[in-house]
Design brief:
The protein is 4% helix and 42% strand. By secondary structure, the chain is mainly beta.
Length: 371
C-alpha cells in the first residue's frame, strides 16, 4: 500500500505470480470500497514477481521526490520502477541481476531512497545504490539460509530489520553492516517484517510454522540490549506468511507520533468508527480459529503474552459479527468505552493487525490491547 494518496486515491501495489506489478486504486462508494485496476507492468517473461516496496514509507516526503517502487523476481533480478502520479502509470527505471537464485525480497532505505536492499535464496543480504545499479554496496553472509524479509525503520534512521529461513530476525545499523546489533530467534522462517506505524520499537514478524510475533526492540535500539517478545501466537496446521499493522489506531498517542499521511486519507481518521472497517470484504478469521488465551493447550492454537513485569497484553481474534456490532472496540473491563471517544479517553492502546496463512487460505484480523 502506498503511504500517501496518489491522484486523490489510496493506491495498492501487487506483485503477482504472472510476473507483473499491478496498481489498483481504492474507490469508495456509499456502502463499500472497491479496488479498480489502473496500471500494470510486466517484469520479465517466465518469472514470478516476488516482492515490492514503496519509497514512501517515511511519511515526510519532499515535494520533488519521485514516487518509486522496487520489486524482485524469481530469476534473482531487481526492478526499479517510477510511478507517474498523474496517471498513475508505471515506468521502468532500471533492472539488474542481484542473486543467483530467487530474489525473495527488495526494500528501500526510507531515509535515503536511492539505496535499496535485497535478500535471496542464496542466503545473501545485499545493498545497492540505484544511481549505479548492478554493483552492490555491500554483501552480507550473516544469515545462514535464504533472506526473505527486509524493512527499514521509518522512525529511526540507520535501523534495518532482516529475516530469514534460518529462523532469526537481525537488527542492523546501516552505517556498519559487518555485524547486526541484535539477533532474535523466531522458531520459524521469517517471511515478513513490519515496523509499527507509530511506535518505533515494535516489530511484527510473520514466522511461518511459528505463527506471528511482536518484538519490543526499544532496549536493543537504544542500549543495544536484547529484544523481548510481547506476543507470540501460533495457528494450528498452518503457516503465517503475511502480517501487517493497521493504520487505524485507538490509544494514547502524542501528536508528535501522528504521521501526516493519516490526515491525507479520508477513511484513516484516528477517531473513526469500526463501521469504516467492515466494508473491506477481506476482513475474516478462520471458521475453525480458537481462542488465543488457551496457551496451555498444546493441541490447539495458542498465544504467549509477555510484557515483562507489566500487565498482560491480550490478543483477540476478530470475527465479522464482532466488526459489524462494534464490540471489537469494547474490551473486557472497558465496556463503557465508545469508539467515538477521543484518544485521550482511552486507557489502553488498541492495535489492529492482520495476518494471512497458508493451507487454510485465510486472512485473520486481530485486536491487540496493551497498556
Amino acid at each position: 500500500m502506498c503511504h500517501i494518496p496518489v491522484a486523490g486515491h489510496a493506491l495498492l501495489g501487487v506483485a503477482d505470480a504472472g510476473g507483473s506489478i499491478e496498481l489498483l486504486r481504492l474507490v469508495g462508494s456509499e456502502n463499500a470500497y472497491t479496488l479498480q485496476p489502473v496500471s500494470s507492468f510486466a517484469l520479465e517473461k517466465q518469472c514470478l514477481a516476488l516482492s515490492l516496496d514503496w519509497s514512501t514509507r517515511k511519511t515526510e516526503r519532499a515535494s520533488d521526490q519521485p514516487l518509486k517502487i522496487i520489486s524482485s523476481d524469481s530469476k534473482g533480478q531487481l526492478h526499479l520502477l517510477k510511478v507517474n502520479e498523474a496517471g498513475p502509470a508505471l515506468q521502468e527505471v532500471a533492472t539488474w541481476h542481484a542473486h543467483h537464485f530467487e530474489a525473495w525480497i527488495a526494500a528501500f532505505n526510507y531515509w535515503q531512497t536511492e539505496i535499496v536492499y535485497s535478500g535471496g535464496d542464496d542466503a545473501l543480504l545485499k545493498g545497492w545504490d540505484t544511481r549505479t545499479p548492478g554493483t552492490s554496496v555491500f554483501t552480507s553472509k550473516r544469515h545462514s539460509m535464504g533472506v526473505c524479509s527486509i524493512q527499514s525503520s521509518p522512525h529511526r534512521e540507520n535501523i534495518l530489520a532482516t529475516g530469514s529461513y534460518d529462523e532469526h530476525v537481525l537488527l542492523w545499523d546501516t552505517r556498519s553492516m559487518k555485524q547486526p546489533f541484535a539477533d532474535m530467534p523466531t522458531q520459524g522462517g521469517v517471511w515478513r517484517l513490519k515496523w509499527h506505524p507509530f511506535h518505533h520499537h515494535l516489530l511484527l514478524a510473520a514466522c511461518m510454522h511459528s505463527g506471528f510475533k511482536i518484538f519490543n526492540c526499544q532496549k536493543a535500539i537504544e542500549k543495544q540490549e536484547a529484544c523481548t517478545v510481547s506476543v507470540s501466537h501460533t495457528l494450528p496446521s498452518s503457516l503465517v506468511y503475511g502480517a501487517d499493522w493497521s493504520w487505524l489506531y485507538f490509544g494514547n498517542l502524542s501528536q508528535t507520533h501522528q504521521p501526516c499521511c493519516l490526515e491525507a486519507f479520508p477513511y484513516s481518521n484516528l477517531g473513526a468508527k469500526a463501521s469504516q472497517l467492515y466494508n473491506l470484504k477481506a476482513v475474516h478469521q478462520s471458521p475453525a480459529a480458537c481462542s488465543p488465551h488457551l496457551a496451555e493447550d498444546e493441541e490447539e492454537c495458542h498465544s504467549k503474552l509477555e510484557s515483562g513485569s507489566g500487565p498482560k497484553t491480550p490478543l483477540h481474534p476478530l470475527t465479522e459479527d464482532m466488526m459489524k456490532s462494534g464490540s471489537w472496540c469494547r474490551a473486557a473491563g472497558h465496556k463503557g468505552w465508545d469508539c467515538d471517544l477521543s484518544l485521550e479517553a482511552a486507557s489502553l492502546d488498541i492495535d489492529l493487525l492482520a495476518t494471512c496463512s497458508f493451507y487454510d487460505h485465510v486472512l485473520h484480523l486481530w485486536k491487540w490491547e496493551s497498556s
